[in-house]
Write a structure and sequence with these properties.
Shape: rod-shaped
Distance between the termini: 39 Å
CATH superfamily of the largest domain: P-loop containing nucleotide triphosphate hydrolases
Strand order of the largest sheet: 8-15-14-9-13-10-12-11
Structural class: alpha/beta
Number of strands: 15
CATH class of the largest domain: Alpha Beta
Number of helices: 24
Number of domains: 4
Strand content: 5-15%
């Protein structure tokens, strides 16, 4: 068997999968394989666009008209823009932190503020502030004596206001554009400024409310903390009183008592040492033979000092008398007695001084012993106080913690209360919206440009959709790619095949091929004959079955023209009418047919009796007679096989005009008996699904599908739009035809 790649000029391109020729044909729609490179054939795309230019223009005009209508019907609007900038730094008049503190804004914070400006709540405030619910632009149903709006109606007004509002961040800055569109330029500026003003006012109000709420909460906490602090301090004082832990100047009474006792004990001990030292010194001096006048304590005695003065006077007097008188002289004796008396007084006074020192030393010792005893008692009390101080320290720590917490809350409460009148917004108005002088919408030039782009896109989409929905076959590539069948040629429609400027005679296609043998129409059938007879390699084709998927494809006309074209070329040809329901060849015969194909098969007539000569050519016709159609399997009988063998022995080419494949089973039977099956499809009309179904029905054993013919091709359109098909170049070789 020869393959499609071996069929010469009529075969499939080498890049297509090879399918054995004369083998049972199967519908082959090549699947997409991963890794394949899908390329865009620009010429084919342009060809499709030219072919469907009418659809493209209609859709584009409809879209453009719709855009223009919408643009004309859109009421003119003006857009005004105010600018608000978020504060990057906080300026504090006082060194007090805000309740609501805002740090330097980041991108997320800016986006958050943008959403706040878009919020329905802010829009509601603007509507109420400017009474926009009484504005006909936003509430067309408003009247002079209109009743208050319902909640739903008010929300509709708010939605209308928000629809005209545009909030956007200016690039990557901290500036936010607050835009508003309105039919009135002054109104647009007023509403944009009101949005900005209320946004800033809302920030201040939120801060004030938050500060007041915080102050109220802090005040409530202070009341509780004040009570707790009082209770803790009372517990400390009561515990001190109960445990004698009263203190002054940072020390307890016991500690101060011990400190006093220690000081007294030290003084008493020092006094004892001093008194003992004086006493011992005086005694040692007396023990060494002193008269006492040189004892330290005696020296300090005023009495002894006076007696010493008297003794000095008496000594001088005695010395003076001795210079003049003898010791026995009465005055000398008297003076000596006075001196002795004074010395005795000094000695007595010295004894009293020593006795005094002894008494003082004893007193000091007893006093020191008493103070030491008091210190011991105080230390016992201090030990008891120390044990009680452990719990006292805990109570004092609780009291101190309560006081510290109370003081911190009190300070924060005072700070918060002072911030109520100092609240400021975290943003500021950079520029107010001015009355716009130019329309913002509709933007006629932009709308026209976008409309043109949309119209072109819609037109291309419609063309693409129409192309995808198109189920007919237009070029040889459609046949080869979709069904992997050999493309046998295109049969032009007579009106499109005539030369430009010439009027075609009103001839039937079957007569035109005889009357105009050098026309492009006739040449198409000669090419078909060549593809059948000479395009099969070494295989001899005698029997050709001409069929189609559906009725009305022009298969009978194709079969007749094929037979006549072959006869004109000198072939012995017989055309057999195998369509039991139509019996179309009777019209070609032009006279009543008494004996036909069925009678020959049934043995009721001889073949020569049934054959009729096609008078315009040398072809023979084996028509169907007037006998009623039988339900018997006429074409599957042995008699039909014998008839075909007889016809093949007499003729070079036997053309079988069969019934359509899909509605009638006869074509499937005859296809198995033919050497070559020609599928006829009407150009851009026959759905490829129908052809696909017909090929599946013919895919039995021994069905030799030779290829497919496109019938009634409009050559003028194929020249303009049939890129990828040989008929696309029809104008280039048209001059070779006489008609």
């Amino acid at each position: 068997m020869a393959t499609l790649g071996e069929l010469g000029h009529g075969g499939a391109p080498s890049h297509l999968p090879r399918v054995a020729y004369f083998e049972p044909a199967a519908v082959n729609i090549p699947p997409f394989r991963p890794g394949e490179v899908v390329t865009l054939d620009l010429r084919r795309a342009l060809s499709i666009l030219r072919r469907r230019m009418g659809l493209f223009v209609v859709v584009a005009l409809v879209v453009m008209a719709a855009v223009a209508t919408i643009t004309l019907l859109t009421p003119p609007q003006y857009r005004a823009t105010a600018q608000v900038m978020l504060n990057r730094r906080n300026v504090n008049v006082t060194n007090i932190n805000d309740v609501l503190s805002a740090g330097p804004p980041d991108s997320t914070a800016v986006d958050t503020e943008v959403e706040i400006l878009r919020s329905p709540l802010l829009a509601q405030h603007v509507v109420r502030s400017l009474k926009l619910d009484r504005d006909r632009e936003f509430n067309p149903r408003v009247t002079a004596a209109a009743a208050p709006l319902s909640r739903k109606q008010f929300e509709a007004v708010v939605a209308g206001v928000r629809k005209n509002l545009s909030i956007s961040r200016s690039g990557l800055t901290y500036v936010i554009d607050v835009g508003f569109k309105s039919r009135n330029p002054a109104k647009a500026a007023t509403i944009a400024n009101e949005f900005a003003r209320l946004y800033l006012a809302q920030q201040i109000e939120n801060k004030v409310q938050a500060t007041q709420q915080a102050a109220g909460w802090l005040n409530g906490q202070l009341q509780q903390l004040r009570g707790q602090l009082t209770a803790d301090e009372t517990a400390v004082q009561q515990f001190k009183i109960a445990n004698n832990l009263m203190s002054a100047e940072g020390a307890t009474l016991a500690e101060r008592e011990i400190s006093t006792y220690n000081q007294s004990l030290a003084q008493a001990t020092a006094q004892v040492a001093e008194d003992d030292a004086r006493l011992n010194t005086a005694r040692r001096q007396l023990a060494r033979g002193s008269t006492g006048d040189d004892v330290g304590e005696a020296l300090n005695s005023p009495t002894i000092q006076k007696l010493k003065e008297q003794r000095a006077d008496a000594s001088r007097k005695l010395a003076s008398l001795r210079t003049n008188f003898q010791d026995a002289y009465p005055d000398v004796k008297k003076a000596r007695n006075e001196l002795a008396d004074i010395d005795a007084q000094i000695t007595a006074e010295t004894g009293r001084v020593i006795s005094n020192l002894d008494a003082r030393a004893q007193v000091s010792q007893r006093r020191a012993a008493a103070v030491a005893s008091s210190v011991g008692g105080a230390k016992g009390h201090l030990a008891e106080n120390s044990r009680a101080s452990v719990h006292l320290s805990e109570l004092e720590r609780n009291a101190q913690a309560s006081r510290a917490l109370y003081e911190s809350y009190l300070a924060r409460y005072k700070e918060t209360s002072s911030k109520v009148g100092l609240a400021e917004a975290d943003a500021r108005l950079v520029s107010e919206a001015a009355d716009p002088s130019k329309l913002s919408s509709p933007n006629v030039p932009l709308n026209l440009v976008l409309g043109a782009a949309l119209a072109a896109a819609a037109g291309l989409g419609a063309v693409g959709l129409a192309q995808m929905l198109e189920s007919g076959l237009a070029t040889s590539a459609d046949i080869e790619k979709r069904f992997n069948l050999r493309y046998l040629g295109a049969i032009p429609a007579l009106a499109s095949a005539a030369k430009r400027g010439k009027k075609r005679a009103k001839l039937a296609p079957t007569d035109f091929i005889v009357e105009r043998p050098f026309s492009s129409f006739s040449e198409a059938f000669r090419s078909l004959v060549a593809s059948i007879v000479h395009g099969t390699g070494s295989d001899v084709v005698k029997t050709v079955a001409v069929t189609s998927a559906l009725p009305g494809e022009g298969k009978t006309t194709t079969a007749i023209c094929l037979g006549r074209a072959a006869a004109l070329q000198g072939y012995r040809v017989v055309i057999v009418d195998c369509d039991l329901r139509r019996r179309s060849l009777q019209r070609i015969v032009g006279k009543p047919v008494g004996v036909g194909l069925l009678e020959v098969i049934a043995g009721q007539a001889e073949l020569d009796q049934a054959i009729v000569r096609d008078t315009p050519t040398t072809a023979d016709i084996l028509p169907l007679g007037d006998a009623p159609t039988s339900l018997k399997d006429v074409f599957g009988s042995a008699a039909m096989d014998r008839l075909l063998l007889d016809l093949k022995s007499r003729y070079d080419l036997v053309v079988l005009d069969t019934a359509p494949v899909v509605p009638v089973a006869d074509a499937r039977v005859l296809a198995q008996k033919a050497d070559f099956v020609v599928m006829v499809a009407r150009w851009r009309t026959t759905p490829y699904q129908a052809i696909q179904g017909a090929l599946r029905l013919l895919s039995g054993n021994n069905v030799r599908i030779g290829g497919m013919v496109l019938n009634q091709v409009d050559m003028e359109q194929q020249v303009r739009h049939g890129y990828g098909d040989v008929a696309h170049y029809f104008n280039a070789y048209r001059k070779y035809y006489l008609e």
